[in-house]
Design goal:
The protein is mainly α and about 160 residues long. Helices cover about 55% and strands about 5% of the residues.
């Protein structure tokens, strides 16, 4: 592999690590919330003299909200990973469908529609270092496809 290939692999791995760290942080927050609930329940149990066994009833049907964490089966998880699109390819697809340059924050909002989570720093770094050289910064963190700006090819 040449240097550019190593840099691309490194960039992709760094992006994946950032995404996974965000997922881990979310799980850690959920664990802390559950631990807090457990602490409160233990405290209440120790303060009360519970002589009657609790009634066991059928579990209620709970509609998940958009913020709920859903565990995926191995099959679903594998399928989700297989269909994952890279940030670079996602940006290219978005810019092609829009047909115009987009500010980085708008790109991030559109990327969420593809199920990817990113931030300004990560996305900016990813598209600046794009190994296919598909993107051009038109200034002010507004990005477009390089192919639509052949006049700026000469200046770079």
């Amino acid at each position: 592999m040449d240097r550019k290939s190593y840099e691309n692999v490194l960039s992709d791995l760094e992006s994946e690590i950032t995404i996974k760290r965000a997922e881990v942080e979310k799980l850690n927050q959920e664990i802390l919330q559950d631990e807090n609930v457990i602490s409160v329940l233990r405290m209440r149990l120790s303060q009360e003299d519970i002589t009657v066994a609790p009634q066991i009833s059928e579990p209620e049907s709970i509609e998940p909200s958009n913020n709920d964490f859903t565990l995926l089966s191995d099959n679903e998880n594998t399928e989700k990973k297989r269909n994952k699109i890279s940030l670079g390819n996602t940006c290219e697809k978005i810019l092609q469908s829009e047909g115009k340059p987009l500010y980085i924050k708008d790109l991030i909002q559109r990327i969420k529609e593809y199920g990817r989570i990113t931030d300004t720093r990560q996305l900016s770094g990813t598209i600046r270092k794009d190994h296919k050289n598909r993107f051009i910064n038109l200034g002010g963190n507004t990005w477009d496809l390089r192919e639509r700006h052949p006049e700026q090819e000469e200046n770079q």
